[in-house]
């Protein structure tokens, strides 16, 4: 009886070893086949089967406004919200179950911290530098020094004259600032603007010119 049980145990052990070996071999084979068939999927379905060998030859291809296009996968389709729970952003659209932040419109004003002392009131203040709601920094239309190079020597230059000669483009801001960073080749210019950077003023005065500040409201020259 003992010999029979030992023989049965040996037979079961051999069968288990055989099954383990075959399973590991199949698993290895599946992994290898999956790795060999791996390929990148494009999000843009219209370009998956397109032949773009010509546009990929960067050295010999000329890019123009009618053939330039974003790289495949760089512009993913936007998420459609409120179109069912299977989409991942259905029903509440990621805003949760009710509450102030789930309502339409902005829930609180910028800088509000729920009633506690906000950051712009906790920080120390600088004299002449107001902060907090209602105070905004002045935004200028910047004019580079290189845009002044086309002006005649000894002439008066401002934004209107530069715009008429097409040296600069139109701006949505009504106040203008001359900034440095580029080379000034024109000589003896009288430049009129609402503000000048330190480097721009030094470059204009070094070339024999002068800077005249303008009023932000009337555009008149401020007497030095």
Automatic annotation (TrEMBL):
Keywords: Ribonucleoprotein, Ribosomal protein, Signal
Region (Disordered) residue spans: 96-118
Annotated Large ribosomal subunit protein uL15/eL18 domain residues: 145-212
Zinc as UniProt keyword: no
Gene3D superfamilies reported in the protein's UniProt record: 3.100.10.10
GO terms for biological process, alphabetical: translation
Domain of life: Eukaryota
Pfam families xref list: Ribosomal_L27A
Keyword Ribosomal protein in annotation: yes
GO cellular component, one term: mitochondrial large ribosomal subunit
Protein family membership: Belongs to the universal ribosomal protein uL15 family.
Protein name: Large ribosomal subunit protein uL15/eL18 domain-containing protein
The species this protein was found in: Leptocylindrus danicus
């Amino acid at each position: 009886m003992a010999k029979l049980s030992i023989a049965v145990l040996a037979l079961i052990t051999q069968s288990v070893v055989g099954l383990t070996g075959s399973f590991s071999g199949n698993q290895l084979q599946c992994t290898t086949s999956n790795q060999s068939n791996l390929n990148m999927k494009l999000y843009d379905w219209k370009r998956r089967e397109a032949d773009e060998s010509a546009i990929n030859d960067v050295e010999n291809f000329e890019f123009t406004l009618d053939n330039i296009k974003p790289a495949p996968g760089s512009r993913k389709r936007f998420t459609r919200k409120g179109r069912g729970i299977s989409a991942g952003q259905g029903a509440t659209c990621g805003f949760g179950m009710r509450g102030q932040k789930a309502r339409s419109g902005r829930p609180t004003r910028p800088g509000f911290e729920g009633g506690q002392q906000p950051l712009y009131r906790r920080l120390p203040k600088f004299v002449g530098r107001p902060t907090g709601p209602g105070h905004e920094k002045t935004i200028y239309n910047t004019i580079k020094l290189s845009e002044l190079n086309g002006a005649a020597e000894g002439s008066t230059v401002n934004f209107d004259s530069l715009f008429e000669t097409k040296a600069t483009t139109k701006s949505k801001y009504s106040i203008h600032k001359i900034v440095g960073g580029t080379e000034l080749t024109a000589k003896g210019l009288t430049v009129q603007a609402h503000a000048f950077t330190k480097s721009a003023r030094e470059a204009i005065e070094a070339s024999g010119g002068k800077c005249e500040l303008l009023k932000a409201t009337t555009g008149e020259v401020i007497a030095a």
